[in-house]
Specification:
The chain is an alpha+beta fold and 317 residues long. It has a domain of 129 residues. The protein has ten helices and nine strands.
Length: 317
């Protein structure tokens, strides 16, 4: 006797469960895409559709670097365990689960295209799709619901407002123009002091045998710009220098101590440096202020033909 096939009595429930599952996967992968941990490149699919894809090598690196989070999320969504550590077997299970759930789909390059990240991709055949084999040289697309955001529109509006402000600068009130100048001067002083602080701390760290880097964190290219600037705020790594470098460090420390002693007994030298920097900044500010006032008053200048006189400031009328 032939066995009767099981009939699904509640297809609507299965459809809802699949929808919820895809939403969970989408939220999970969107988090990594947003913070730059999952690198995506753009390409043209079938010559008319723009898509975002992941190269197999980058997908493997993403899997190895975020294995614990991926393991917990896959287990919570599908109740399947992909393994205890990131290896070839766990990567294969991870790919198979995503492929079976139709989250990850394979793509291939155009024959003859040898670019590292191709600008055009083609779909794979059904036979290739059934193999369920992961390759570092292959290309994959995540079939997930991307989070909709209004950020591009907000950025566009802010850009238009900024352009209008710049274009309308000649008709700004004088107080607003000078306020912008004060603000730019304050920003310049802050950045200058902060840059000096970073350099001084880095030099002191090298002298005592440590690499000390205060933000930005430029060593992590895959991080988002917020994480590059503020996460972490400071990085400290111990140096492993050779004997010759240690001797040079000791000589530099002695030189800096001697320089500090000279500055203490001859305070005119550091005071002169401070006054020079201060005078340079104030001269720069005065120059900018005079230029702004000159342009402002020149715009508002009116020649009265009947009296043949020149009224300089016409704002109060």
């Amino acid at each position: 006797m032939k066995k009767k096939k099981k009939i699904n009595n509640n297809p609507q429930k299965e459809k809802e469960e699949k929808k919820i599952e895809i939403e969970k996967f989408s939220a999970f992968y969107n988090k990594f895409i947003a913070n730059g941990k999952l690198i995506q490149k753009t390409a043209t699919f079938l010559d008319f559709t723009r898509i975002s894809y992941v190269k197999g090598k980058d997908l493997k690196q993403f899997f190895e670097e975020n294995f614990e989070e991926i393991q917990k999320e896959i287990l919570s969504i599908t109740k399947m365990n992909i393994g205890k550590e990131p290896n070839e077997e766990s990567l294969k299970k991870f790919y198979e689960i995503n492929h079976q759930k139709q989250i990850i789909k394979g793509l291939k390059r155009i024959p003859g295209d040898k670019a590292k990240y191709p600008k055009k991709l083609l779909p794979i055949t059904k036979e290739e799709d059934k193999k369920l084999e992961f390759s570092e040289n292959a290309f994959y697309i995540f079939d997930i619901k991307t989070e909709k955001t209004n950020k591009p529109i907000i950025y566009l509006v802010l850009l238009i407002i900024l352009i209008l402000f710049i274009v309308l600068f000649p008709i700004w009130p004088l107080n607003v123009k000078l306020g912008v100048l004060y603000f730019l001067l304050a920003c310049m002083i802050f950045l200058l002091v902060f840059l000096i602080l970073i350099i001084v701390v880095a030099i002191i760290g090298v002298l005592i045998g440590y690499d000390i880097l205060i933000l930005p964190n430029l060593d992590e290219p895959k991080m988002s710009w917020k994480d590059k600037l503020f996460n972490p705020f400071i990085i400290i790594n111990k140096r492993e220098d050779e004997c010759g470098v240690i001797i040079i460090r000791i000589i530099l420390i002695i030189f800096l101590i001697a320089l500090g002693v000279c500055g203490y007994f001859y305070p005119r030298i550091p005071k002169a440096c401070y006054n020079f920097i201060k005078d340079m900044l104030f001269s720069l500010f005065d120059y900018g202020k005079n230029k702004i006032e000159e342009i402002h008053y020149h715009r508002n200048a009116v020649t009265v033909h009947d009296r043949n006189q020149y009224i300089e400031d016409f704002d109060g009328i």
